[in-house]
Amino acid sequence: MTTDMKKASSEVLANADAVAMRMAELLIDAIETCPEQKARIALSGGSTPKRLFEILAQPDMAKKIDWSRVEIFYGDERHVPVTHDDSNHKMAQSLLLSKVSLPASQIHPMPTSSSAKEDAATYQSILQKSYGSDTLEPGRPLFDVVMLGLGTDGHTASLFPGEEVLDNDRDWVSISAPKTAPHDRLTLTYKAIQSSRLVVFLITGENKVPMLKRLKQADDTIPSGRIKSDGKILILSDRAAAGEG
Ligand SMILES: O=C1O[C@H](COP(=O)(O)O)[C@@H](O)[C@H](O)[C@H]1O
Questions:
Q1: Rg (CA), the chain
Q2: What is the CA(150)–ligand 1 centre distance, in A?
């Protein structure tokens, strides 16, 4: 089964906190029902997942998760040192990963210390090692959950409009050099994102109204509109992003 954006489900929740809580529930469920020993989860970057990370780090919530069954990956990363304020990993590490019982060996940040091209190839090898093969097999998804955001230009992960990576159907990880963003980036490709049990878009705030509308219409002229999953796709948004605020 392949799900494209035309077949995506959506839920509109009261506010950004409710979206984060719902995402936390989905993660708990995905970890509990993961058919393999460990659930591979790709975190999204940007500002939207911040609230989720804070919620998951709260002791009452953190104890609902068997962290020994979790492997953390990233959907994209700014090609900056991990100490940089724009680093997705820095944010996830400080708000969540440093606060729960998750061994460092189960956290896989995108490397950013060599050239972006070399770092993309290294991350692909890290994913292939975890998956146990360098070929994606039908019926055995790479990720249990891929979290995605939505940029006001329609990008998701670091799949930006006009970038070569949009046509890369060979690699799992690629470089992206958006002209509209301050740093080069590394990103999962469409192919890697598709190999998933569940893709969830987290979209909050009224500045996302026009793009969320296009995403729900499965507009394939924006990069997010071309996302597919071998499992399910869910768009979680708040009322403000849905234009109901
Ligand atoms: O999927 C993603 O979307 C965001 C958009 O970020 P936000 O700050 O509006 O939440 C993107 O830039 C991010 O890196 C990515 O993972």
A1: 16
A2: 6
Tell me the residue type at 114: S
Residue by residue, DSSP assigns 156-181 as BTTB-TT-GGGG--S-SEEEE--TTS
Pocket of ligand 1 from Cβ distances under 6 Å: 44-48, 75-76, 148-151, 156-158
Q: Give the chain's domains with CATH numbers.
A: 3-204+216-238 (3.40.50.1360)
Instruction: In whole angstroms, give the CA distance from residue 128 to residue 130.
Output: 5
pTM of the model: 0.97
Question: Over the stretch 117-176, which tens digit does the pLDDT of each residue have?
Answer: 999 999 999 999 999 999 999 999 999 999 999 999 999 999 999 999 999 999 999 999
Q: How far is CA 239 from CA 7, 21, 34, in A?
A: 21, 15, 31
Ligand 1 centroid to residue 63 C-alpha, Å: 28
